[in-house]
Amino acid sequence: MIFLDKLRKSVFIGGRTLTILHPVSLHIPRGQFVAVMGPSGSGKSTLLGLMAGLDAPSGGEIRINDRVITRMNEDELARFRGVNIGFVFQSYQLIPTLTALENVQVPLEIQGRAGAGARARELLAAVGLQSRGGHYPAQLSGGEQQRVAIARAFACRPPVLLADEPTGNLDSATGGQIIELLRALHREQQATLVLVTHDPEIAGAAERTVRLLDGKVAEDTAQPPQPARARALR
Ligand SMILES: Nc1ncnc2c1ncn2[C@@H]1O[C@H](COP(=O)(O)OP(=O)(O)OP(=O)(O)O)[C@@H](O)[C@H]1O
Ligand SMILES: [Mg+2]
What are phi and psi of 201, to 5 degrees? Predict the structure, then answer.
């Protein structure tokens, strides 16, 4: 469950205050798949960064699974994030000096989980990359790197998965596979999935679309989720 209560963000820039997010209040029940849409500059990435605790709001409160993350200090936040939140970026953000397998293993090792290697191999297999574990990010295509990033985001089975335009740099067929993979993992692990996208077709797969405009929620609509296609990746 994610609860945003009058969440605000403004920055002081060039001698004046720029409001990026006006008070936004949202309740996202556990396990829901929400698409966040809106024009460039409307505040989507800002909202997601705040939900992930990667950025501090100017006001308001964020509760995730009944913990108020906006009151945590850096250490508490880092620990909370490690256990509860998976984040997928548009630009993958893999560690270039580590192999695919090692990238997936990192969050498991930070958590001190036993069997990190086995779990990482299982995750790479789930995203169809079992044979690429020894490859470095530069040796993988964009779609493959994003699959590694998704495996990493799901490594610790976080109850909340946040994805900021995860298919923005991919062709539409590869993007479609990435979305199917996110949906499959979301279903299998009952994770709450908040996905920023510009693509109406991708948003159509969600149960709900929140549309931002100038830092405000302009529209919040529930929709019947599309039936899942067959597993796109094996
Ligand atoms: N740290 C910052 N300092 C100044 N302005 C910022 C900062 N972060 C974001 N902004 C501004 O806030 C607005 C919202 O930015 P944000 O990145 O959230 O938009 P977005 O909806 O994700 O856009 P896009 O679709 O292009 O990714 C933009 O006008 C941006 O320039
Ligand atoms: Mg953005």
Answer: -70, -40
Query: What are the structural domains of the chain?
Result: 2-222 (3.40.50.300)
Whose C-alpha lies nearest to ligand 1, atom 3? Answer: 11
* pLDDT at position 170: 82
Q: What is the mean pLDDT of the chain?
A: 91
Farthest-apart Cα atoms in the chain, separation? 54
What ligand has the least distance to the C-alpha of 11?
1
Kindly state the tokens that stand for 185.
């993992």
Beta carbons within 8 Å of 94's beta carbon, 6+ residues apart = 100, 103, 137, 145, 148, 149, 152
Ligand 1 pocket residue status of 213, Cβ below 6 Å: no
pLDDT of 234 above 80: no
State the average pLDDT over residues 46-60.
95
Distance (Å, whole) CA 196 – CA 203? 8
- Indicate whether 209 pLDDT > 70: yes
Residue 13's alpha-carbon distances to 60, 191, 230, 234, in angstroms, are 21, 37, 48, 48
N-term to C-term CA, the chain: 30
Tens-place pLDDT, residues 167-203: 888 888 888 888 888 888 888 888 999 999 999 988 9
To which residue do tokens 């609860």 refer? 3
